[in-house]
Amino acid sequence: LGKIRHRNIVRLLGFVSNRESNLLLYEYMPNGSLDDLLHRRRGSGCGGKGDGDMASEADWATRYKIAIGVAQGICYLHHDCDPVIVHRDLKPSNILLDADMEARVADFGVAKLIQAGDESMSVIAGSYGYIAPEYAYTLQVDEKSDIYSYGVLLMEMLSGRRSVDPEFGEGNSIVDWVRSKVVAAAAPAGGARSKESRAGEVLDPSAGAGCPQVREEMMLVLRVALLCTSRNPADRPSMRDVVSMLREAKPERKAASQRQRSPPAAPPPPHKCDAVDP
């Protein structure tokens, strides 16, 4: 793990091991964690700063930037590391933020290096609310386990809610709650505006969901989150595909992509999981 070098993965500097404890030493991240950002510093407005006790940095532009960064970091672990590394404990408190609010994936305490044909685990590891449903009874771990956890993390960023909340109902997680809202929005009753309003109930107003452009971006990212949390692991996209879909979620990116298609342009180079640190 100490050899991993990527702009979106916190650098492991060393470790301490003795009779009393086992500790990992990481580089310092001055802006805390994504959990701090989402649940302790809430703001409002059209993608701007809030006017509460603390100026919120949790607007949609920041959340989107973090979502892309986390996806790029996990994409690197899944597609550019040999053997593949599965994080197994993706959650907001394990996403640290550097001085520029860039996401750094941290806490590889339960990470699993996957060799070919080696996907079973003897114990369940991870955090309640983020574990893929099939993992609890099959003990099979692969990249799709991280994809599910990432989808849950996206839902937290979109809604501003924790993965488990009494409001969701007994035994339900944020995935169940979001899907119930989406199913209700898909019901025949009501017009298109009513359906959009019901689906939009999952979006956090403090992120700027009241602004049409921001709302459009958030709804597109919500679709990615729903794909990532599919109950059937085979229906979940790869993290490389997730990175591509997130990049297409920005309206200006979509417009640029459409302009590039006419006249036909040369095919783009194969996608990599963004830059690797030197």
From TrEMBL:
A Pfam family hit: Pkinase
Main location class: membrane
GO molecular function terms attached to this record: ATP binding; protein serine/threonine kinase activity
GO terms of biological process kind: plant organ formation; post-embryonic development; reproductive structure development; shoot system development
Record keyword tRNA-binding present: no
Localisation: Cell membrane
Protein's UniProt keywords contain ATP-binding: yes
Listed GO CC annotations: plasma membrane
Membrane topology: Single-pass membrane protein
Region Disordered, annotated ranges: 237-278
Protein kinase domain location: 1-253
Sorted UniProt keywords: ATP-binding, Cell membrane, Developmental protein, Glycoprotein, Kinase, Leucine-rich repeat, Membrane, Nucleotide-binding, Phosphoprotein, Receptor, Repeat, Serine/threonine-protein kinase, Signal, Transferase, Transmembrane, Transmembrane helix
Protein's name in the database: Leucine-rich repeat receptor-like protein kinase TDR
Organism of this sequence: Anthurium amnicola
